Amino acid sequence: MNTNYGMEIVRATEIAALTAARVQGLGDHIDILNQTRLAITKILDRLPINGTMVNDRFSTRPEAFQFPQHLGKGGEDADVMAIALEAYRSAADGRNNSTSYAAIARAGAIQPVPNLNMYKIVVGPKVGDAIDINQPPAVNVKRVARTLRKYTENVTVCVLNQNRHKQLIHEIRSCGARIKLIDEGEISGCLAAIKGEKADIYIGSGYAPEAVFVAAAIRCMGGYFEGKIFYENDRDKKTASEHGITDYNKIFRTEDLIRSREVAIAATGITDGEFLEGVRFTPNGGITNSFVARGETHTYRSLTTNHFFDYKPVF
Ligand SMILES: O=P(O)(O)OC[C@H]1O[C@](O)(COP(=O)(O)O)[C@@H](O)[C@@H]1O
């Protein structure tokens, strides 16, 4: 793409985060989701692109504010993906790990995926392709330990704290590795594993669109991902085929989900999370913490931004 749109889309995730943070903890799950989705849309719609929105998890949820299918003031063709408020219940309840995400890529680069469950394993660039989704969790954890030259006991595995992960958690504990449980917001857990500081590997299942954002992040930051969609019935398979997916045993890797190096991502913390700090309000303003990265150059930036509401007409 001609422009580093990462520097543009981060302004959208910042406004989304400020919007969500204002109503954080008020307990209204749908209101916070919709306010945030509207806010990110307003900013993304100002981009000088002819954008197509891909992979909206809430497109079949009538109670959710619906993203327009086309975005931007006109210009270069591009795919856009927004997860305006990941972990919206956490944000509404005042819990950790909610974040605003956006990605932009060359037109046609972002694979559309159904809103089905996907089992994922994510690691950072130092581990690379040492993992194999067909192997049991303990084997993968030990491979991570060997590659990072750590004791297994010192490997940290990030897992969503959900009932469906009971057996997974048991197997990880049995091999002696450390577990970092998060209640919601698996993208932040995956990004933490890619960065390799708070976690060394993310394992578990959540939604497939989340994996697409993680793949975009890997395109920009390095790392490795394998994922497998769960199909509960023929209807799930039909939904997948409507997204162009007909191999129901397919192991998805980064290149399958983001088919170009021409991609940029942005993320802004809403509540404190595994990857980013949340919004802090100041007298008449707020401070946001964001991350921006670009696939073509692998340049990444951490931004601490001071916002002054008197001078911010959109807000
Ligand atoms: O645990 P569940 O409810 O099946 O959903 C898993 C999904 O929930 C999340 O933790 C939060 O999702 P939301 O953005 O819908 O709040 C995702 O990161 C994950 O993919």
Automatic annotation (TrEMBL):
GO terms for cellular component: cytosol. GO terms for molecular function: fructose 1,6-bisphosphate 1-phosphatase activity; metal ion binding. It catalyses: beta-D-fructose 1,6-bisphosphate + H2O = beta-D-fructose 6-phosphate + phosphate. Keywords: Carbohydrate metabolism, Hydrolase, Manganese, Metal-binding. The keyword GTP-binding does not apply. It holds the Pfam family FBPase_glpX. One of its GO terms (biological process) is glycerol metabolic process. InterPro entries: FBPase_class-2/SBPase. PANTHER family: FRUCTOSE-1,6-BISPHOSPHATASE 1 CLASS 2-RELATED, FRUCTOSE-1,6-BISPHOSPHATASE CLASS 2. Belongs to the FBPase class 2 family. This is Fructose-1,6-bisphosphatase. It comes from Desulforhopalus singaporensis. The lineage of its organism: Bacteria, Pseudomonadati, Thermodesulfobacteriota, Desulfobulbia, Desulfobulbales.
